[in-house]
């Protein structure tokens, strides 16, 4: 664990001290080496944890998310190069410094076994993410988006901190493994305080208003970080802490109903959404509704499906945001109406666009389908009527995904000059496609069993 965490921390002074001409190549090479080293975490035996010290360990739940975060770090740097082309050297260093700091905080959060350490790192990810959104966002509304993101996260996290301190006082320990093995009295308030903070982070429908704003205003690296890992921190936290708490059955019904109803509502919002990035953001809320449902039901198959869906959605939504950024850099607009005729001018890009949309709508044999089927089956076994909501959401998802793809067909506008994609952009898309295809062949690697 430490042999990857320590070099990750070295990325922070590297971003500040590297000279102008070698800044991006050095950072990219270093992060690529770390991404390659992180693949070793996928070889951990299914039932064992790998402890590096008393506060940190990597197991079958955290290893796929850690590997995903490291894999997409160099991809985010590649995708951001055009966005940072006209900025000063100091601004480029600050941007890479924020990415390196965010990666360090994420690594500690996803591998910590101490609940207070997890909480501190869980909240610390807010700082570099908010700096990226508010400093390198595209429009004036980025400050509003940053404020929404900050206040939603901080207000929901106060009950979590109080709950963790109460657990420490009650059990005299904050080690997740020890608390799980210790029996304790049922406490509905404690469960609610811990759960709400993670549901805001995921987010649950009704607590999701910060997400579309943050995604729309964030630069491409911010959108990728939010979509791939920061949303998954909520699901990871629920899956980590829920076994340590008594889960009241009476509260399962309102939360599952809200999550599944939110899937249908956000899918319907996607049907009438003219902004491409906002559409992808709302589709993330819809997919996370399934993860919320799976983590509340807490059956082995639902948790395995939630892990698979989190990884699959992280890769797919990141690829969709990269494609949306490619469109934005060429047209200067995120409106779906401006994308007409893209298929004739960029046919290879249209192929990646089709692939991303097919995985987003969970077409067989994609990894998304496996995760969704496992969760939907577990939910159906838990309660038969849930099939109506999950089936409706899956149908609407297919409709808006095909609508999103169909917008690139048609006649291009006469006054629009589209320059061809660069090799760098195709490399970014390939680095999303390759893990997607490889995980299709062997999903057992990331399956929580």
UniProtKB/TrEMBL annotation:
NCBIfam families associated with the record: NDH_I_M
Superkingdom, natural source: Eukaryota
Family: Belongs to the complex I subunit 4 family.
Keyword vocabulary terms for this entry: Electron transport, Membrane, Mitochondrion, NAD, Respiratory chain, Signal, Translocase, Transmembrane, Transmembrane helix, Transport, Ubiquinone
InterPro entries reported for this sequence: NADH4_N, NADH_Q_OxRdtase_chainM/4, NADH_UbQ_OxRdtase, ND/Mrp_TM
Domain NADH:quinone oxidoreductase/Mrp antiporter transmembrane: 112-395
Keyword Electron transport on entry: yes
Protein name, as recorded: NADH-ubiquinone oxidoreductase chain 4
